[in-house]
Fold these 2 entries.
Entry 1:
Amino acid sequence: MSFGPEVSNWKYSLFLENKKNNFNKDNILNILTKKDIDEAYNTISTWNNYFYTPLISLNKLAKKLNIKKIFYKDESKRFNLKSFKALGGAYAVEKITKGKKEIVVSTATAGNHGRSVAWGAQKLGLKCKIFISEHVSEFRAEKMRSFGADVIRVEGNYDNSLKECIKQSKENNWQIVQDVAWQDYKLVPKLTMAGYSVMMKEISEQTKNDKISHVILQAGVGGMAAAMVAGIARYLDNIPKIIIVEPESAACVLESIRAGKIEKISIKKESLMGGMSCDEVSLVPWEILKNSINYCVTVSDNYISKTVKSLANCEFSDDKIIGGECSTPGIVSLAGLCNDSEIKNKIDLNENSNVLIFGCEGDADEELYQKLLNE
Ligand SMILES: Cc1ncc(COP(=O)(O)O)c(C=O)c1O
């Protein structure tokens, strides 16, 4: 009989306090507005098969870590797309194309965003071009093709795929639907973030009777994390402590917080958490995150397969949970923080805490998921 992994031995890699923390609801909702957020919910909640994804209690893990409650938002169930990204790209496609049929949409992606854009385009009968780097699995490429997208593989990393997407889109007059912002390209990334904020609307109702004290948010370019911060400003009465978690090999938010400005990092080795292996925080998220988050933490890839297996084997909760690689860092970092008594004290993690973490994706890459389960 298995008693689960020895989470009491797990460690985080780096921890940093944000000295500039000064959560200001009005400032945050000036960037992603109440109107943006409400429009997204009003639209997405009318889509076929929309329902609240489960908020699962990780009661067994909470007991091991001596935390009151741990809530796990299970995005493996999001519209059969198996990740929260379903809410962003598809919503942006719908908003920017405004019912026109002759538009071709394009994007560059690590996988899940592209799947959302392809799905959104197919729903509206639009053509779609998706650019992927050599690191994106063929399984993920095939999923995007299954939604009718043309998938174009580009040599090199994500940045190369984005450059090629921008170049070909300009030449062919395709409409780029990117989740990353740059100077003069902020509207679409904002729309994707507004789409993601639907998660916090659901959570605010699912936790009506429990005040959330801490929230741990995964970051790649920071879009999801910043959208959740805006959702907290919009929907929650209390402000939890906000902790950003990143792969130790791709800590672009942590390094930017340390520097007090956006820092591009150099990724020596791509993390297995592919969606989070990003070298630069995006502009719009940075404006929200820089003063609203309390702490940053990083984790190693070594705990990914252990966490995937424990979720699947009901070792953290009564329910079997299908959590892919990007669903693991919330759990890993929480265990690591709880195992450091000084930090645990400092950030007020204790038997009265209600911690919210995100299971951002399920087995979106089924082959990798099986490999992690069998490791
Ligand atoms: C699958 C996946 N992609 C991407 C991200 C990161 O999102 P963003 O790039 O908006 O920070 C996450 C966050 O955990 C994720 O789970």
Note: The domain at 89-178 is CATH 3.40.50.1100 (Rossmann fold).
Entry 2:
Amino acid sequence: MFGEPHLLRNRSWDWHSKKARRMAESDSMATTGGHGETGEGESRRDFIQIVTGVFGAVGVGAVAWPFIDQMNPAADTLALASIEVDLSAVEEGQAIKVKWRGKPVFIRHRTKAEIEAAEAAPADELIDPEKDSDRVQKPQWLILVGVCTHLGCIPLGTGASETRGDFNGWFCPCHGSHYDTSGRIRKGPAPENLEVPQYTFLDDNVVRIG
Ligand code: FES
């Protein structure tokens, strides 16, 4: 039903290990606001705008993430947290941004055309070759860690009015990296595709990330 989720999970953890240092660097840059859309105020507004569709969970029980934010849980608690996101309100062609382990996660409800473009990308044109089918559990749902693999900016393209770059996915304006509708790097200095986090669909509309 979900393709081969165990493969995706294993791949995600491998990837996570491979890029642990990079993501740590990304966190540092986001905190200092050194690049692009990493200003804390702006990011927080973005997250709050989509909170009605998100359940945050730390340990047992589900609460909205602003409540978690106000409670200011210990850093080690956040590091272990998973979130559950209700996708039922995300229409085809829309994307949302949620916060997970201190990082943005992009969730796009892909259109048929976006799926076809992702699947049709020639392997020899990919900077970081990877099949679209290895990056999604359900073709219509693309879930990515929203941190540019170059130097850690948050790429544009999730908001309806944001530019999506030359490949109709995401665009990182910091140094000009273009990602496609599978979140793969297609042009610019970023060396790797946007990371696919570990996630599990709990039912047709709810996904647990982490
Ligand atoms: S940080 Fe994204 S292109 Fe440099």
Note: The first strand starts at residue 54 and ends at 57.
